[in-house]
Amino acid sequence: MRYLKLRDRATFEFAVVSVAAALRTTGGRVQDVRLAFGGVGTRPWRDTRVEAALRGRPLTVQAIEAAGRLLVRDARPYEANGFKAELVQRALVSILSELGGLR
Questions:
Q1: Helix then strand then coil, % of the chain, to nearest 5
Q2: 82 contact partners, CB below 8 Å, separation of at least 6
Q3: What is the 3-state secondary structure (H, E, C) of 25-40?
Q4: What is the pLDDT of residues 52-78, one digit of tens each?
């Protein structure tokens, strides 16, 4: 399990984007994954579509990137926060790559 909190500055307490992840793999395949995202909506949330897209599949950077695209597929960002769609995808790749031993 890991929590990744991305901030504008180290002095800021609030996250611009955050991802909490719990990952269980066997033989390089995702057995279970739980993801919670913060800073990109009105409240933290889980996206079970993203979890389902990863479950049962080999954990690869390509699979994680595809799950990230699914995560933001229906996003409707405003002008001032549009950058968060890409940032949350990168955060997802970072945290799952680390947990899965891909880097």
A1: 40, 25, 35
A2: none
A3: EECCEEEEEEEEEECC
A4: 999 999 999 999 999 999 999 988 888
